[in-house]
């Protein structure tokens, strides 16, 4: 589905949704990731950028990587099992 963006001004609400973790004024609520075998993924289109992540255990680092990936137009992300 299409993401819905809701702007929340109250710090206390952002703190609640982030479980009191640092959030830099932005919190993303999403459904759990689904697991696929790499063989079952669609082939990237020619020139597409995909990001492969390994050893990411911190949720905040993962969020930073995903925000950067979105900014740079990454079309797919592959994470190892157990990734944050």
Ordered list of secondary-structure elements with their pairings:
Layout: H1 11-17, E1 50-53, H2 59-71, E2 76-79
Parallel strand pairs: 1-2
Overall average residue pLDDT: 83
Q: Percentage of helical residues?
A: 10-25%
User: Rg from C-alpha positions?
Assistant: 15 Å
Q: Uncertain spans, ≥5 residues at pLDDT below 50?
A: none
Q: Look at the helices and sheets and give the structural class.
A: alpha+beta
Strand order of the largest sheet: 1-2
Question: What does this 3D model show about the protein?
Answer:
There is one protein chain. The chain has 84 residues and is of the alpha+beta class. It is 24% helix and 10% strand. It is built from two helices and two strands, in the order H-E-H-E. Strands 1-2 form a two-stranded parallel sheet. It starts with 10 loop residues before the first helix and ends in a 5-residue tail after the last strand.
């Amino acid at each position: 589905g299409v993401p819905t963006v809701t702007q929340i001004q109250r710090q206390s609400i952002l703190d609640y949704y982030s479980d009191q973790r640092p959030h830099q004024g932005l919190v993303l609520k999403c459904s759990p990731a689904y697991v696929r075998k790499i063989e079952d993924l669609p082939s990237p289109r020619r020139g597409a950028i995909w990001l492969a992540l390994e050893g990411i255990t911190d949720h905040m680092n993962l969020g930073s990587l995903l925000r950067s990936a979105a900014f740079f137009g990454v079309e797919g992300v592959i994470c190892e099992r157990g990734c944050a």
